[in-house]
Amino acid sequence: MLKVLRIILSISVVTLGSYILITRKMELLPYSLFLVGVLTLVLGLIELKKDKKSFWGYINIGASAFVFFVVIYTSQFS
């Protein structure tokens, strides 16, 4: 389940990022950043599922929390 979600999120991040680069629609960047945050969260959960004491799983979850904070902060003040 998580691996399928990882593949779907990876494809959507690359697709949205390519679309933003080609069309120069910078107002879509928060959506792309949100998808990157969800992808990082899923990667952290996969790492924790593999090994309960995985350091990188906690790092990924912390990074996704920071990305969510940035998305909320930038969407409020833009």
Core attributes:
78 residues, mainly alpha, 3 helices
Structural account:
The chain has helices at residues 2-23, 29-50, 55-76. The chain has 78 residues and is an all-alpha fold. It has one domain. The N and C termini lie far apart (35 Å).
Can you lay out the helices and strands and say which pair or pack?
Layout: H1 2-23, H2 29-50, H3 55-76
Q: What's the tally of helices?
A: 3
Mean pLDDT rating: 93
Measured between the Cα atoms of the first and last residue, the distance is 35 Å
The number of distinct structural domains comes to 1
The main β sheet shows up as: none
- Beta content comes to under 5%
Q: Can you tell me the residue ranges where pLDDT is under 50 for at least 5 consecutive residues?
A: none
* Outline type: flat
Estimate percent helicity.
over 70%
| Rg calc | 14 Å
Topology order in helix (H) and strand (E) letters: HHH
Q: How many extended strands?
A: 0
Q: What class do helices, strands and sheet pairing give?
A: mainly alpha
Pfam family, one: DUF3953
Transmembrane segments: 5-22, 28-48, 55-75
Organism: Salipaludibacillus neizhouensis
Keywords: Membrane, Transmembrane, Transmembrane helix
Question: What is shown here, in short?
Answer:
The chain is an all-alpha fold and 78 residues long. It is 85% helix and 0% strand.
